[in-house]
Design a protein that fits this description.
The chain is mainly alpha-helical. The protein contains ten helices and six strands, in the order βββαβααββααααααα. It is 54% helix and 8% strand.
Length: 261
């Protein structure tokens, strides 16, 4: 079983061996590989694969065509795609999949809470695996949509973990620059705002930190919400000129999402 194989879904679906791209064939082979990866470790039935490949308009010879597509993909990958009962199983270690490696690195970073250099290294490595929209052009079709949404959410969480480490490592100004852009992109993520306030306050930009609290209050008010106790406490600490305005805790950030691998 090859261990030099990389299966890539954090962007357009692709495969590499020893860093060299593998020619997978046409759209059918790419879709088939994506369907096997999204259910890595599990048998994917013929019916599910046929639905992925052709939707509600399968060809008359769908069974034979599926077998042919599997055979071609197996040849391209030079690895086993096992026939199990009425479906197929991609027999590779789950760590071959970039999305699996990404999730494991993020959870390791969360578990390293307090060892900020290690948290930063793990998260940067994890985020470097991304090449675009998960599953590429297939991300808006079943069965990939929910997984794309889940991975996109985990990527946002990864950025929050990375920026927490940046702040704790004393890189306040750099973190504040990134966070100013992120709160515009994700205005309802209270945790992101808390990180911005902490970065500004620790950088000595107290007035801007208070104004960030005000901006968050205004945004929450547009949806009928008031500031949370954590936000109120954050404002009080900034107003008191606390030199160590806290960042939100890491524990539970990434593990709030399941790791079904």
């Amino acid at each position: 079983m090859p261990t030099d194989l990389d299966l890539l879904v954090l962007g357009p679906v692709a495969a590499h061996r020893n860093g060299v791209p593998i020619h997978l064939g046409g759209a059918g082979e790419h879709l088939l590989l994506a369907a096997l990866i999204v259910s890595i470790g599990h048998v994917v039935s013929d019916d599910v694969l046929a639905d992925v490949l052709w939707g509600d308009q399968p060809p008359p010879s769908a069974h034979n065509t599926l077998q042919s597509t599997v055979s071609r993909l197996r040849t391209h990958l030079e690895t086993e795609i096992e026939r199990v009962d009425d479906g197929y199983l991609l027999s590779v270690p789950t760590a071959c999949v970039d999305a699996v490696r990404f999730e494991r690195a993020i959870r390791s970073a969360e578990e390293a809470d307090g060892s900020w250099g290690q948290v930063w290294d793990l998260t940067r490595t994890a985020l470097s695996l991304w090449r675009g929209t998960p599953y590429g052009a297939f991300g808006d079709r079943n069965p990939f949509t929910l997984e794309r949404i889940r991975l996109d959410e985990l990527r946002i969480l990864a950025n929050e973990i990375l920026l927490t480490a940046e702040i704790e490592l004393g890189r306040h100004a750099l973190a504040a620059c990134s966070l100013e852009a992120l709160v515009l992109e994700y205005p309802y993520r209270e945790r992101m705002w808390h990180l911005l306030v902490a970065a500004l306050a620790r950088a000595g930009r107290r007035i801007e930190a208070v104004r960030a609290c005000d901006r968050l209050d205004d945004i929450l008010a547009t949806v009928g919400l008031g500031a949370s106790p954590a936000t109120k406490d954050l404002r009080l600490r900034v107003l008191a000129d606390d030199p160590d305005v806290p960042t939100p805790p890491l524990r539970g950030v990434a593990t709030a999402q399941p790791l079904p691998r």
